[in-house]
Amino acid sequence: MSPEIIIFSIAWLAYYAMHSWLASHHFKLNFANRFSNLFPHYRLLYNFLSVLLLLIPLSLLFFHPWDTLWRWQGNMYFLMNGLGLLSIIGFLLSLRYYDSAAFIGLRPNTDGHIGSVDEPLVISPMHRFVRHPWYFLGLLFIWSRDMNMGWLITCTWATLYMLLGSRLEERKLIAEYGESYGRYCSKVPGLIPQPWRYLTKKEANQLTQLKD
């Protein structure tokens, strides 16, 4: 294995480790105790730092002359680019079901909430078919691109992070929402939609109204 591949992999692993650590309840609680005046803006600080640190592995990805592994040709070119386009459209459509101001951090957290959300459980149309639609759409996009060695390494670590990150995220959501989210997980697949596992609109509404 070449030194470039090792260094690049370490860069992604360090980024994902830092990303998860900063998002953990333990870190947020310590931050809130030490910097109570800044904590209402923690989400904004977190997102800013995440983007800033992301520039390190991305610079290694785009500025290093990685060997090309394959380029989609013929019908596969149209199929893969069609899937990539669908993933972008799906992401844009999903934005209407998110509070973008809260997600980015433009709306300060004023209630001392430590968890990842401060709103009631909401199951959007996409969440009725897969628990992590953004992860699914992200996987669909990255694996439908032309592939060089740097992009393959990026896709591999991103996929592993999404698998692990989704589990860690769900632990927090179960702690916050309890039985309602636990039942939701038992009925809807995590990362890859399965046609035989989904919630009807009525079932989704019933789960959001469930009290622990």
- Binned, the helix content reads 55-70%
Mean pLDDT: 87
How large a portion of the residues is in β-strands, by DSSP E? under 5%
Overall radius of gyration: 19 Å
How many helix segments? 9
Number of strands: 2
Output the strand order for the largest sheet. 1-2
* Assembly state of the chains shown: single chain
Task: List the uncertain runs.
Answer: none
Broad structural category = mainly alpha
Describe the biggest sheet? 2 strands, antiparallel
The gross shape turns out to be: globular
Distance between the termini: 51 Å
SSE order, as H and E? HHHEHHHEHHH
Explain how this protein is built.
- The chain is an all-alpha fold.
- The radius of gyration is 19 Å and the shape is globular.
- The protein has helices at residues 3-23, 25-34, 42-63, 74-94, 100-104, 133-142, 149-177, 179-187, 201-208, and strands at residues 68-70, 147-148.
- The chain starts with a helix and ends with a helix.
- 64% of the residues lie in helices and 2% in strands.
Helices and strands in order, then pairings?
Elements: H1 3-23, H2 25-34, H3 42-63, E1 68-70, H4 74-94, H5 100-104, H6 133-142, E2 147-148, H7 149-177, H8 179-187, H9 201-208
Antiparallel strand pairs: 1-2
List keywords for this structure.
2 strands; two-stranded antiparallel ribbon; 212 residues; globular; mainly alpha; single chain
